[in-house]
Structure formats: structure tokens, C-alpha cells
Write a structure and sequence with these properties.
By secondary structure, the protein is α/β, with parallel strands linked by helices. It has 14 helices and 10 strands. The protein has an 8-stranded parallel β-sheet, covered by helices on one side. Strand 2, helix 7 and strand 3 form a beta-alpha-beta unit. The N terminus is likely disordered.
């Protein structure tokens, strides 16, 4: 089918459904193969992965299973890597048969399994030593599962209840202890700016500096810099460009958070060209993971829009 006819059919189908679509979104609806054959995309200084959280509504609604996620990531979106979320297979960390099948599916698709995002396993920054020890040991099984799947990292949280100084001290101990365990598996322990003190770039990089371990680093997220949240939204936010600049010194992965787009396909909350220039200037040449959390576009359309934006900016900066 030639390009003109394919474009006509796409427009006709969308018009029939009653959707209003802008040219940039139509372009992002092209097949993954179309994007992958673009020479400018191949020359980007980074590769694109997909964070499973981008499809959390679809997964929670039961319209997609965790086991099916690698196939969707590759066949629907044409990405090169996947980033799992433990919430979607939380009882499978020690299930060798399940993990083998998951690994086989990703490998057969030519996908890199990059990391597992870990939540709900306790506070690694808890000031109380006993509480912190439980949290550290709760993460052991995920280090082992990540190693089995071929990941380079597990993403954890540096949360705890106390003053900034108390949680800092707890996080140094908790993360350091977990990183010591993970070192024997060749695994990184990386912390995302994920609310609370961790969304303060200076605080988080201070923790990293004190730990000073090669396999303990960060996962800068372009959008998670809210320092004080209320029922009305975020009342205080750390500057995202400053935060990412600070965190890139320790970065072993990057999370490209997207929410809303303008008619030209640009993310309205983050200047992506400016942000990706920060990433490039830091010398980072790894994967950049799409993490779409918007509400206007559905998850599939939001992921495609995010990928189109990363490809556009990547071509401009590479």
C-alpha cells in the first residue's frame, strides 16, 4: 500500500470515529517499521525504551497482562527496550518458570530488558534501623529476579518519615546496604526522583555523593519534582532542569515523562530539546524510557506521541 493511500485510510478511519486529530499525531500513528527505517532515528545518541507504567491503566483494567507487555512494546511501538514495574508481577519474583517465559518473550523480540521499577517493599530511607533492614531485605528477591531477566538495574525509592537530615542518613545506610548486596549480582540500585525529599535534586545527589558506590545511582525523571503536594495539586516544585542536571552525574537510566502535548506535538510542561540537551551534555548514551502519564490522549496514543517527540528532538541533537 502506498503512503498516500495509507494516510487517506488513516484519516478516514479517524474521521469515522469522530476523533479530531492533528498532523503530528497522525504521523506518530505510522507503523513502528516506518519510524525505524528513518536514518535520522538510527543516528540518535540514545535508544528508546518503554516504561511499563505508561500502560498502567490498561494493565490495571485487565486489558493487558504483564506477560503480554513485551509484545505490545515491540509490535505496537517499535521500541528497543522495556522497563518493568514490579506491581504487575509482584508475586512472581521467585517464580523461575514465569521469569523464564517472560525473558524468552523479550529475547525472541530482540528487546533489551533494562530494569525493574520497585515499589511497595518498604522505606529504604527509614530512620529506624529495624524498619530499614526489613525494606532492604525485601528488595533482595528483586535484585535476583532482575539478574535472571538480564536487567542492569532495579529502580528503588529513597523514602522515609523524618526530617530531611534523618531520611538522608537512613537512605545512605539503606541504599548502601542494598547496593552492597546487588554488587555481587552485577546489578545497579538506582533512585528516581519520586516524591518527598527525593524530588529535591540537591538532596538526592547529596545522598549519592555520600554513598559513593559505582553501582548506586539515579534515574532522573523529567517530571517528578513536586516537593509539596496537596489535594489541589503541587504547591511547590523543584526546578526540573536544575534537578535533571544535578542527577545526570549519577544517572544509569533516564525517564522521559510526558503528560500533555500542544498542536505541534511538543510536551507543554517540559522543553524536550532543552532537557535532552542536558542529557546529551552529561555524556549519557544509554536508553531513554518513555513514561506517559497524560489524561487527554489514551495510553497508546500518548506513547506514540512521546516516541515521535523523542525521535524529533533526537534527530535535531544527534
Amino acid at each position: 500500500m502506498n503512503l498516500k493511500r495509507r494516510t487517506f485510510l488513516q484519516k478516514s478511519a479517524l474521521a469515522t470515529s469522530g476523533l479530531i486529530i492533528t498532523p503530528w499525531l497522525l504521523e506518530s500513528c505510522h507503523s513502528p517499521a516506518t519510524n525505524q527505517t528513518n536514518d535520522t532515528v538510527k543516528e540518535m545518541f540514545f535508544k528508546i525504551s518503554l516504561a511499563e507504567w505508561s500502560l498502567h491503566k490498561t494493565l490495571f483494567d485487565g486489558k493487558l497482562t504483564h506477560m503480554e507487555f513485551p509484545g505490545v512494546a515491540k509490535n505496537e511501538f517499535g521500541v528497543d527496550g522495556v522497563e518493568y514495574v514490579n506491581q504487575f508481577f509482584k508475586d512472581k519474583a521467585k517464580d523461575t518458570a514465569y521469569l523464564t517465559e517472560l525473558k524468552t518473550r523479550a529475547d525472541d523480540l530482540g528487546l533489551k530488558t533494562l530494569l525493574i521499577m520497585i515499589d511497595g517493599e518498604g522505606s529504604l530511607g527509614a530512620p529506624d534501623e529495624a524498619e530499614r533492614k526489613i525494606a532492604v531485605e525485601n528488595h533482595y528477591k528483586w535484585v535476583e529476579a532482575a539478574k535472571f531477566l538480564g536487567c542492569h538495574s532495579i529502580r528503588v525509592n529513597a523514602h522515609g518519615v523524618g526530617t530531611a537530615e534523618e531520611v538522608h542518613a537512613g537512605a545512605v545506610q539503606g541504599l548502601g546496604s542494598l547496593a552492597t548486596f546487588a554488587k555481587d549480582f552485577g546489578m545497579n540500585v538506582i533512585v528516581e526522583n519520586h516524591g518527598g525529599y527525593s524530588s529535591d535534586g540537591s538532596w538526592l545527589t547529596g545522598v549519592m555523593a555520600e554513598i559513593a558506590m559505582e553501582n548506586c545511582g539515579t534515574l532522573p525523571d523529567f517530571g517528578n519534582f513536586c516537593l509539596k503536594r496537596t489535594e489541589n495539586g503541587c504547591d511547590e516544585e523543584y526546578d526540573r532542569y536544575t534537578g535533571v542536571t544535578e542527577m545526570m552525574k549519577y544517572a544509569k537510566a533516564v525517564s522521559a515523562k510526558t503528560n500533555d502535548f500542544d498542536e505541534a506535538g511538543n510536551e507543554i510542561h517540559t522543553d524536550y530539546k532543552r532537557m535532552m540537551q542536558i542529557v546529551k551534555d552529561a555524556g549519557y548514551r544509554g536508553f531513554v524510557g518513555i513514561e506517559y502519564e497524560g489524561r487527554v490522549l489514551d495510553e497508546y496514543a500518548g506513547i506514540r506521541a512521546s516516541k515521535a517527540l523523542l525521535e524529533k528532538v533526537g534527530a535535531e541533537l544527534s
